């Protein structure tokens, strides 16, 4: 079930109709209160979230959604008329999985939804593993990272970045590959987004951040 949070009745009804017609069951909600009530009754597989909403805006709803243990891993695509890079980066850094700017084509939207569902599909094997690189330990299921036994608080994107590197120890990951896998292939930001997140991740990991090596002109890898 896909939830569409959109205050424009015409857009909401068109999105829900299109998704239903393409085999993606959907429900529409005009605002945050209705959306939260819907989540209390049934959790969705994915959320389409407009930023400009009456009352509580989409960014605030996204923060709460990501802070809730029951919903933090559910993919969210932000849908809004705002097209500035700042809004894109803000939404993605808060845990959005993709960003769609109005006006958009319905078939493009369906394609983006399917891509996010494929990319974020839950893998029971991976969700229950513990990753370890020297003094860095990651409990994927509990979404925790420890360095020398001390917990390090990471944002969702920092966590996903570290997980991608730790699952590919000694393998060089290009900036383009990291951008595609973690921020979504449709995100048109530059690869400096990856560099900024690697820098903050290293800072949070302290001396353990030295395990993340820069491969000049290519990308990054994590080593023992």
Question: Could you explain how this protein is built, in words?
Answer:
With about 220 residues, the protein is α/β, with parallel strands linked by helices. About 40% of the residues lie in helices and about 20% in strands. It is built from 9 helices and 12 strands. The protein has a 5-stranded parallel β-sheet with strand order 2-1-3-4-5, sandwiched between helices. Strands 6-7-8-9 form a 4-stranded antiparallel β-sheet, covered by helices on one side. Helix 7 crosses helix 9 (about 190-205).
Quickly list its features:
about 220 residues, four-stranded antiparallel sheet, Arc Repressor Mutant, subunit A, 2 domains
Provide a concise account of the structure shown.
This protein has 224 residues and is an alpha/beta fold. It contains 9 helices and 12 strands. α7 (156-166) crosses α9.
Topology:
Layout: E1 2-5, H1 9-21, E2 26-29, H2 32-41, E3 46-50, H3 58-67, E4 76-80, H4 85-93, E5 98-101, H5 106-120, H6 124-127, E6 130-133, E7 136-139, E8 144-147, E9 150-151, H7 156-166, E10 173-174, H8 175-183, H9 192-205, E11 212-215, E12 219-222
Parallel strand pairs: 1-2, 1-3, 3-4, 4-5
Antiparallel strand pairs: 6-7, 7-8, 8-9, 10-12, 11-12
Helix pairs in contact: 7-9
């Amino acid at each position: 079930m896909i939830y569409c949070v959109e205050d424009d009745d015409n857009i909401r009804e068109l999105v829900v109709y299109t998704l239903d017609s393409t085999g993606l069951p959907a429900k529409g909600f005009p605002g945050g209160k209705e959306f939260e009530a819907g989540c209390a009754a049934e959790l969705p597989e994915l959320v389409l979230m407009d930023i400009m909403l009456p009352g509580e805006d989409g960014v605030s709803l996204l923060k709460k959604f990501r802070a809730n243990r029951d919903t933090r891993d559910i993919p969210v695509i932000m849908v809004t008329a705002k097209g500035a890079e700042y809004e894109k980066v803000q939404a993605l850094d808060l845990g959005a999985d993709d960003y769609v700017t109005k006006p958009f084509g319905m078939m493009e939207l369906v394609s983006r939804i399917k891509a996010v569902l494929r990319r974020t599909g839950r893998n029971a094997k991976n969700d229950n593993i513990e990753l370890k690189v020297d003094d860095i330990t990651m409990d994927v299921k509990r979404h925790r990272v420890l360095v020398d036994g001390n917990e390090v608080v990471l944002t969702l994107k920092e966590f996903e970045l570290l997980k991608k590197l730790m699952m590919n120890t000694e393998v060089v990951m290009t900036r383009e590959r990291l951008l595609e896998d973690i921020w979504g292939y449709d995100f048109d930001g530059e690869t400096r987004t990856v560099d900024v997140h690697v820098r903050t991740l290293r800072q949070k990991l302290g001396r353990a951040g030295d395990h993340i090596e820069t491969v000049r002109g290519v990308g990054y890898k994590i080593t023992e």
